[in-house]
Amino acid sequence: MGAARKVSRNRKVTVKTGVSFPAELLENFDKILREMGIASRSQGLQEAIRAFITVNSWRLSGRENVAGVIMVHYSHDVKGLEEDLTDVQHDFMDIIPSALHLHLTEEDCLLVIIVKGAASRIRHLSDRIRSVGKAKQVLPILTPIY
């Protein structure tokens, strides 16, 4: 993959490269850029690439340090579920500095578990929460710590 490199004043290297897109995808991207007030495609692509890295990097080797949340949507009517979720969290106190419980409806709750640590350990926590098997949704949202 060929790319031109340029060093900016703050010594960060900028790489210029070409990318091909289906026309409709680029039109939708440009529309969103305009609506969000993002000045250029370059800036939009940088944000998109960072988001892609954020969503996926923790799944790789597991050695990276990451921080973020694991959102757990569940019904509090499921007998024993809240206790099971609490037990799992207690096994991971080294990476869970805090958690928040939100009442969505009379039946549904959202547990927001704040996490910080090795991606492999957070992946293990996420897997353990899923293994409880009674949650409606388990969604990790993590960002690398640079």
What this model shows, in words?
The protein is of the alpha+beta class. The protein has two domains: 21-59; 65-144, Alpha-Beta Plaits. Helix content is 37%, strand content 30%. β1 (4-7) and β2 form a beta hairpin. The radius of gyration is 20 Å and the shape is elongated. The mean pLDDT is 89.
CATH topology of the largest domain: Alpha-Beta Plaits
Q: What Rg do the Cα atoms give?
A: 20 Å
By helix and strand content, what is the structural category? Answer: alpha+beta
Question: What CATH architecture of the largest domain would you give?
Answer: 2-Layer Sandwich
- Number of DSSP E strands: 6
Largest sheet: 4 strands, antiparallel
CATH C-level class of the largest domain is Alpha Beta
What would you give as the CATH superfamily of the largest domain?
Answer: ACT-like. Chain A, domain 2
Strands across the major sheet, in which order? Answer: 4-5-3-6
* SSE series: EEHHEHEEHE
The number of domains: 2
Task: Note the topology.
Blueprint lengths: L3 E4 L5 E4 L6 H14 L4 H16 L8 E11 L5 H10 L7 E6 L4 E11 H14 L4 E8 L2
Helix pairs in contact: 3-4
Short description:
This protein is of the alpha+beta class. It is built from four helices and six strands, in the order ββααβαββαβ.
